[in-house]
Amino acid sequence: MIFVVVPAYNEEKKIGRVIRGLFEHGWQNVIVVDDGSNDQTAEVAKEAGARVAKHTLNLGQGAALQTGNDMANRLGAEVVVHFDGDGQFNPADIAPAIDKMRQAGVQAILGSKVLDSRSQIPFLKKYCILPVGRVINFLFTGVWLSDAHNGFRILNREVLEKINLEHNGMAHNTEIVSKLKKGGFKFLEIPVEVRYNEFGQGVMGGFKIIKDLILGFFIK
Amino acid sequence: MLFIQGLLVIFFVFAIVKVIARYRSGDLTGKVMIFWIIFWLLAGTAVILPNTTFYLARIFGVTRGADAVVYVGLALVFYLVFRLMARQEKINRDITVIVRQLALKDIDKK
């Protein structure tokens, strides 16, 4: 069974469309993790037909994804797709990604917005933030990725069972890559389309990620 | 003894009394109590006998005892801030576990 985990925070205006888009592409097992929203995200998601888990506090996207992973695991998922709840991703990218995963015999797929030209990436992000992000990701994980912080990923059950996300915030992106490598899991990047409604992670967000990663070394 | 010395000594004695009281009420472990008592005793010594800081300065290769006290104090403050940040992160992780359990408690009924 394939589950799509959608972390969402204050996305009442977009979450319904995201869920309907997933249903239209044949992905019926959708889990929305409402990360302590103070709007009607959970209610809209339920009404749209998704299974909903609701955090009583806002913890961060990493925490929401792990909650979604745990829920999918308990419901018997064989594969989990991470799919942002803000409408950035294209549900049409999921099927080719899963096919690629099976053909290549890998245990995880990581999305990359730079491997094709569908995504209109803001200039500052494309030429400043993404390159720096690649280097920082390499320093922390030893893995060179074309897109170090992309929320689209697919994990098989083996990965789901072995990887537990400890970073609640955006440092979970680097944590996942690091744990995939340490766990000896095979993974590859595939092109995905990202539609930017807002800028996303900026420079200050990047500093917070680095701080969280360094602090994470000292806390077990 | 100068007025400021007297004031500081009173403050340090008060601090030691508070540390012992917190240990007795179970808020502090024995190790932490000993650390803070030694810390306040050393601080009191430096205040009552400022010339002792000269020895500290010699160890660190610094000219003035007051400078050595500032450097050591600053390093200690940074270390304590780091410890606080680490403790806060641990608390955040514990909160996450609880929030997650609450979010998933009805999962089998969904």
Characterize the structure shown.
The complex is a heterodimer of chains A (220) and B (110). Chain A has helices at residues 15-24, 41-48, 61-74, 94-104, 123-141, 157-162, 172-182, 203-218, and strands spanning 2-8, 30-35, 51-55, 79-82, 108-112, 153-156, 187-191. Chain A is globular and about 45 Å long. The mean pLDDT of chain A is 91. In chain A, β1, α1 (15-24) and β2 form a beta-alpha-beta unit. Chain A is 43% helix and 16% strand. Chain A has eight helices and seven strands; from the N terminus they run βαβαβαβαβαβααβα. Chain A is of the alpha/beta class and 220 residues long. With 110 residues, chain B is mainly alpha-helical. Helices cover 81% and strands 0% of the residues of chain B. The interface between A and B is medium-sized, with 22 and 17 residues.
Report mean pLDDT of chain A, rounded to a whole number.
Answer: 91
What is the helical fraction of chain B, as a range of percent?
over 70%
Shape of chain A: globular
Output the radius of gyration of chain A: 16 Å
For the largest interface, the chains and their residue counts are: A-B, 22 and 17 residues
Give the beta-strand count of chain A: 7
What's the main sheet of chain B like?
A: none
Low-confidence stretches of chain A: none
> What value does the Rg of chain B take, in angstroms?
21 Å
Secondary structure class of chain B reads mainly alpha
Proportion of beta-strand residues of chain A: 15-25%
Query: What kind of oligomer do you see?
Result: heterodimer
Mean pLDDT over all positions of chain B: 88
Spatial ordering of strands, largest sheet of chain A: 3-2-1-4-6-5-7
Helix content of chain A: 40-55%
- The helix/strand order of chain B is HHHH
Number of helical segments with 4 or more residues of chain A: 8
* End-to-end CA span of chain A: 33 Å
